[in-house]
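Order emerges. As here.
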Amino acid sequence: MCGFVGAIWEAGATPVSEGELRAMTDALAHRGPDDADVWLGATPSGGGVALGHRRLSILDPTPCGRQPMVDPATGCRVAFNGEIYNYRELADRFADGRPYDTGTDTEVLLRAFSEVEYDCVGHFRGMFAFAAYDPRHGTLLLARDRLGQKPLFLRREPGRLLFASELKALLQVDGAPREVDPAAVDRFLALQYVPDPHCILTGYEKLPPGHRLIWRNGAVDSQAYWRPPYAGNACVDGPFHTPLSGVTAPEDWLEHTRQRVEEAVRLRLRSDVPLGAFLSGGVDSTVICAVAQKLLREAGAGPLKTFSIGFAEKRYDESDFARTAADTLGTDHHEFRVTPDAVAALPRLAWHFDEPFGDSSAIPTLALSEHTREHVTVALSGDGGDELFCGYERYDAVRLAARLDRLGPLKALVAAPLWQRLPAGVEQKGVMRRAKRFAAELAKSPQERYLRWIGIFDRETRDELYTPEFRARIDQDAAGDLRDAFAACGCDDGTVDGEVRAATCVDLLTYLPGDILVKVDRASMAVGLEARSPLLDHRVAELAAEMPQSVKVRGGRAKWPLKAAAWSDDFAKLPQGFLDRKKTGFGVPLGPWFRGELRPLLDRALLSDRALARGWFRPEAVRRLIEDHAAGRWDHSARLWCLLMLELWCRTWLDPATAPTAAPSTLDELL
């Protein structure tokens, strides 16, 4: 895994100098600590093109794998971040009668682009973002993997296109503007992340997952090349997708799941550097580790190295479950006991994530990545299982609400205002509090209530928070992206299962790439660790998209295919009930922190003259959130965390005279 940057421009447009290109490249040193190089050239029309690359050596770690890489036969060049897992299978197809000079997937990608140009992305199984330039036509291809595991930021200017793996690299270009987009702030506070294709800064964007962008003579064409087939429609990649037909029995779906997941794990075990796996003891990571351990044994290799972290606060500690899974599967397990240190993590998060990011599980993810990197360079993870196989508890709420929709007068009784008068605890995830929230939104349409269930600040709370001046600058609806995702999924057929299916599809298109995969990419890349997610193999995703809901949730068991498949003999020995326990999640004690050791930080950051001078938020509204939380009247921890991360992001990226090239050493530097 690596990082890359680049630009292409027409004759007469502002060129990117070698100094700028090197500054852009150096800003991504954390993504590629092993090697670096840049290249500049001229286009046939008199313009220019530039590529820069930072390398984390995984396959063929010799200097032969240096990027940007050139194909000597065609002059085509590529800068690439990620992995093409099926590169060995593609090597013969794109050899063109010539031997390969390296053992890298990059060279196979380059040969494929040289031969079939823009159609090459359909051949690849992997996580990737890349820039490929063809001097024969003066064209540039930018592409991002189907599920959005690898990032790609863009800036379009008259006659010039800039691109990079992270936004911070684009900010190293001379004169790069840093003006916040109020609509992006609104989206962030609604969702706790800025969804694709939007960016927190005006004039910048992200290439969405499953998209490619083509530059040709100054014209830019962005198009989707893949979408998950939830509605039974063919994928955009057409010939590269073969829908399952005649599969009806749950046992048959189970076998297809086993085959595809096992194949995905096998491909992701390819590495020329030490490899291990994250193991939380949850369903997804346990499945991945069981399959990997079995495959390594069959290959005569040593046991899989697995990694987990434990916390002193039992509510957030899954280390006992991870240990049980490791002992049962026979892995070489490494457990790290940590005390989450928000004060130390905050300045690093603000710098590494580039945009405000409100998912507090980034703290333990960063800690786990750091400890894992001490032992291996590559780690398998179980990301994607909840979205693909219906694992989140909120899908139960969607299912229950859909059933109540069909009960007429009884639905009106459940949604009656009387329920809101019943007492409830402070904790947002308390049973009564969640029941009241469920009932309060029941009268709305399925789409609207789902948007409110997954949101952080709802529309009314955001309106109370904003100053009139800032509110007037927001020209887009924060919920519009999720509504567009519902429309794109096209799988709500009016049935209960259809509504649940639509919610899982929307999460796959929005929450997964916007939150989960951003968190994993930035946290792992901050320490030079490559995280691989077998469940996000697009063939597994396509299988899950076509799978009936009655198979995903069977006999009351969510993620039934993952729990019931015969992954290995050891997997079958897990204790009874181990896979069906209540989901814990990967969190930190925000609520107690903001009533205790982090309480002064809220005043110091959110109510400071510096913060209030931005003119975005009403001081009394911010103060009310802090005081209500501190007094135990309401759990505003998620909202306060978002506001804190937004302010620290401003102090990192907006306030300095120039964009920083490294994270602040301490939080005091930002305060």
